[in-house]
Amino acid sequence: MVSYFDGELNDGLKKVAFALCTPPAEYDAMNLMKAVKGIGTNEKVLIEIICTRTNQQIKDFKAAYKELYGKELETDVAGDTSGHFKRLLVSLLQANRDESKEFDRNKAKQDAQALYEAGEKKWGTDESRFNAILVSRSYAQLRATFQEYAKLANKDIDDTIQSEMSGDLRDSMLAIVRCIRSKASYFAAQLYKSVKCMVTDNDTVCRVIVSQCEVDMVKIKEEFQRNYKQTLGTFITAYVSDDYRMMLLALIREEAAVKK
Ligand SMILES: [Ca+2]
């Protein structure tokens, strides 16, 4: 039991050390490659990376993927996924999201109506309508759309997605919606879930902390505290062991604040 745990810790430490030495776009490309290579697919990783990055980050990890592996990421992702989930990921990989900060209230009302008719009002679901709106509109526009949607449907878009979609398509759409509401809150939840399972998901903890520690960690820590009523530092101290814990705490700049 002890030796198994030791092995897992060393493995975690090695992963973090390697990740820290890798440029962000390459690190994303490597994680995406690991997610599609061989038999089976790690859809969770595809969702966490492809549904959360900006247009520029997507362009950069696609270029890194081509450089590292000599092939197109879209082709590999499309080959490993299917149906509307595949279409959603491939569309996101085009990196064509409107990234302006403005929104148009009338357009938000129209899109809210379109989403309502494609889901709640329809026998079955028009998934492509959801895809088209969630993939192309700006975050600001979609925030307004979700407000209009809640007024119109008397429920949140998240609840509609939960009941109208299933499997990876549902999970990817929920990831997009949660990122639009707050990327920091989305990543805080990823950390919480990956530590609070039977065996700590070190890969996810490492991916999230390393990729976000220089980007949004202050906000992620705030969201973590707000949503889970404890600091991220306390949480990591309680659930992650020894060497690996110290490294993670250093990365989130909590080393001084936490005593076991
Ligand atoms: Ca329906």
From TrEMBL:
PROSITE patterns: ANNEXIN_1, ANNEXIN_2. GO terms for molecular function: calcium-dependent phospholipid binding. Gene3D superfamilies: Annexin. Its main location: host cell. One of its GO terms (cellular component) is extracellular region. SMART domains: ANX. It comes from the Eukaryota. InterPro entries: Annexin, Annexin_repeat, Annexin_repeat_CS, Annexin_sf. Keywords: Annexin, Calcium, Calcium/phospholipid-binding, Repeat. It is found in: Host cell; Secreted, Extracellular exosome; Tegument. A pair of annexin repeats may form one binding site for calcium and phospholipid. Involved in reproduction of the worm. Involved in host-parasite interaction. Delivered into the host cell by means of parasite exosomes. Binds to acidic phospholipid membranes in a calcium-dependent manner in vitro. Causes aggregation of liposomes in the presence of calcium, but not in its absence. Likely to promote membrane fusion. May provide structural integrity within the tegument. Belongs to the annexin family. This is Annexin. It comes from Sinanodonta woodiana.
